[in-house]
Design brief:
The protein is mostly helical. It has helices at 20-23, 40-66, 103-107, 134-146, 150-162, 171-183, 188-199, 207-219, 223-235, 239-251, 255-266, 272-283, and strands at 27-28, 36-37, 91-94, 99-102. The relative contact order is 0.06.
């Protein structure tokens, strides 16, 4: 049997042509999902013939996932229920309860259950009084760490990275905490790891690893990571891919990406339509 006839035929082994009934359960190529094999030997034997097509399709699948507009990692404010802004200055993490609250609600008066304004400064969500000292604030964060709070874990990584709040500067521990925060679902931690590899801070400069972690952050919804992917693609001369990344970041509210698209338009790398679309998305 001509095995070439079985390429992309998911009902038979791409190498030997045996059907599932003849060979048992067929397993798809884990990379491209385009062909199936009855066993590992057949997969290895077919690899030289399949390699080029597999790499092409794998890259296509990767790009389909990468450029798909992600769900924003920004939840709603726990007080006003409006979506939290992209900028870090637009929200505040409360170590007392682990909630993230927008800057507007943080500055608004706090009322008790009878509608009376509370004179003492308290968390607007759990009404815990604000910490009276840095030591008390850090004790609260330690409790959030024990609860595997991803933002608290991310913050601990920041403390190790910069040597702040009583923690020694330790790049290795910083990366460990950022990895953990990313695994717990905090996308911005992956962006931090990407920066470290991009700039050689605590690790050797490695653009490939930087790109990998920026991609992880972007896929999880971090606009800063997405922006950096756009910058890296633009630096490599891949303007179409750069524009795609930057536009997605703009749709998430990342103003720096809008500035870059404006520059691309001024330099002739983006059309007026591209810039207008990005501007409207940012305004929305």
């Amino acid at each position: 049997m001509n095995t070439a006839d079985n390429d992309n035929d998911m009902s038979a082994c791409a190498n030997c042509g045996k059907s599932e009934e003849e060979s048992g359960k067929l397993k798809a190529c884990t990379a491209c999902k385009m062909v199936k094999y009855c066993n590992r030997d057949c997969q290895i034997a077919h690899r030289p013939q399949h390699k080029k097509e597999c790499r092409k399709r794998t890259k296509e699948l990767h790009d389909e996932e990468l450029f798909k507009e992600p769900q924003s990692q920004h939840e709603d404010c726990q007080i006003c229920f409006l979506q939290l802004p992209t900028l870090i200055s637009g929200w505040k993490y409360q170590a007392c309860c682990g909630k993230v609250i927008c800057s507007g609600c943080i500055c608004a008066p706090v009322y008790d259950n009878h509608g009376n304004e509370v004179a003492e400064e308290k968390c607007p969500y759990c009404r815990t009084p604000h910490p009276e000292s840095d030591k008390e604030a850090m004790e609260r964060e330690k409790k959030r760490l024990e609860a595997s709070d991803p933002i608290a874990v991310q913050n601990l990584g920041n403390y190790f990275f910069h040597g702040r709040n009583g923690y020694p500067q330790d790049y290795t521990k910083a990366l460990e905490q950022w990895h953990l925060a990313g695994e717990l679902g905090y996308a911005r931690a992956y962006c931090n790891i990407g920066y470290a590899y991009q700039n050689g801070e605590g690790v050797e400069v490695d653009k490939k690893k930087a790109n990998h972690y920026f991609e992880l952050g972007a896929l999880a919804g971090d606009e800063g990571a997405r922006h950096n992917l756009g910058i890296m693609e633009g630096s490599a001369g891949n303007m179409e891919r750069a524009l795609k990344h930057l536009t997605i970041a703009v749709q998430g509210g990342y103003s720096e990406s809008l500035d870059v698209i404006q520059e691309l338009y001024s330099d002739g790398y983006a059309t007026k339509e591209d810039y207008t679309k990005a501007l409207r998305a940012y305004q929305e």
